[in-house]
Automatic annotation (TrEMBL):
<comment type="similarity">
    <text>Belongs to the ABC transporter superfamily.</text>
</comment>
<keyword id="KW-1278">Translocase</keyword>
<feature type="domain" description="ABC transporter">
    <location>
        <begin position="6"/>
        <end position="236"/>
    </location>
</feature>
<keyword id="KW-0547">Nucleotide-binding</keyword>
<keyword id="KW-0472">Membrane</keyword>
<protein>
    <submittedName>
        <fullName>Taurine transport system ATP-binding protein</fullName>
    </submittedName>
</protein>
<dbReference type="InterPro" id="IPR003439">
    <property type="entry name" value="ABC_transporter-like_ATP-bd"/>
</dbReference>
<dbReference type="InterPro" id="IPR003593">
    <property type="entry name" value="AAA+_ATPase"/>
</dbReference>
<dbReference type="InterPro" id="IPR050166">
    <property type="entry name" value="ABC_transporter_ATP-bind"/>
</dbReference>
<keyword id="KW-0813">Transport</keyword>
<keyword id="KW-1003">Cell membrane</keyword>
<keyword id="KW-0997">Cell inner membrane</keyword>
<dbReference type="InterPro" id="IPR017871">
    <property type="entry name" value="ABC_transporter-like_CS"/>
</dbReference>
<dbReference type="GO" id="GO:0005524">
    <property type="term" value="F:ATP binding"/>
</dbReference>
<keyword id="KW-0067">ATP-binding</keyword>
<dbReference type="InterPro" id="IPR027417">
    <property type="entry name" value="P-loop_NTPase"/>
</dbReference>
<dbReference type="Pfam" id="PF00005">
    <property type="entry name" value="ABC_tran"/>
</dbReference>
Length: 260
């Protein structure tokens, strides 16, 4: 079943003092229930633009975006959004940040507590639930961002470079957490990354965009995250010849697109 879909989408940004910028051209992408779709491509190829369309922050110049078959008319709680520099509320605790969304939608206090408690547990922040945001490391903050996005029980998570600012070790731990979150919550995911290795590790499907105007030039299927869930370590998976071969294929598709 398709959760979120872009059909024949064009985005042209008007630009003050210059010509219009064609950011996306004729992009069609459907994300099915339970899929983990990762978009890669050179800087400026329109990845964030596509995510903003899905989130409802932006309207396409042509084409359509649908959620569960209905036209997307703006942002909504069925789509949880996570950015690299998440704007958490520094004056609230971890729990306060995560409960904020459900509180705004009118969920009762007891149910809110219970739901958010489960999510806090899922992202491994139980011991930090009453900490303030400024007391947390970068990785922990991103965990709060993910928990906050999950708190409204969205059908899909939209993530723009969520791990981009983290050091290598924390990043790998967070990749593992993402795979487990995806498996445990059974949500669909659309994620943008600059790291081809990260894309292959996380994704069930990788889409490659070419730059300006962005078009989807290649798609690849992967299932390396299944091996993590089956108990293999990230290191073993990432050094497997099959993983390295796919990494080279995707990388060359990205580079080819960038030259086009
Ligand atoms: N609000 C805007 N007004 C004008 N041009 C814009 C606007 N937002 C994005 N663009 C341009 O549209 C193109 C696509 O931008 P977008 O941010 O979607 O790319 P991206 O692939 O996410 O880039 P990056 O990987 O560097 O984050 C770029 O050339 C960018 O400069």
């Amino acid at each position: 079943m398709t959760v979120l879909s872009a059909r024949d989408v064009d985005v042209v940004y008007p630009r003050r003092g210059g010509g219009p910028v064609a950011a996306l051209r004729n992009v069609s992408l459907s994300i099915d229930q339970g899929e983990f779709v990762v978009a890669v491509g050179a800087s400026g190829c329109g990845k964030t633009t596509l995510l903003k369309l899905f989130a409802g922050f932006l309207k396409p110049t042509a084409g359509s975006i649908t959620l569960g078959g209905e036209p997307v008319d703006g942002p909504g709680g069925e789509r949880g959004v996570v950015f690299q520099d998440d704007a958490l509320f520094p004056w609230l605790s971890v729990r306060g940040n995560i409960e904020f969304g459900p509180k705004m939608t009118g969920l009762g206090a007891a149910e809110r507590r219970a739901r958010c408690g489960r999510i806090i547990d899922l992202v491994g922040l139980t011991d930090f639930a009453d900490h303030r945001i400024w007391e947390l490391s970068g990785g922990m903050r991103q965990r709060v961002g993910m928990a906050r996005a999950l708190a409204n029980e969205p059908s899909i998570l939209l993530m723009d470079e969520p791990l981009g600012a983290l050091d290598a070790l924390t990043r790998e731990k967070m990749q593992e957490l993402l795979v487990h979150l995806w498996d445990r919550t059974k949500r669909s995911v659309f994620l943008i990354t600059h790291s081809v290795e990260e894309a292959i590790f996380l994704a069930t499907r990788i889409v490659v965009l070419s730059p300006r105007p962005g078009r989807i030039t290649r798609e690849f299927h992967a299932d390396f995250s299944r091996r993590l869930l089956d108990g293999e370590t990230s290191r073993t998976i990432k050094s497997d010849p099959a993983f390295i071969a796919l990494r080279e294929q995707v990388l060359s598709a990205v580079l080819k697109g960038a030259e086009a």
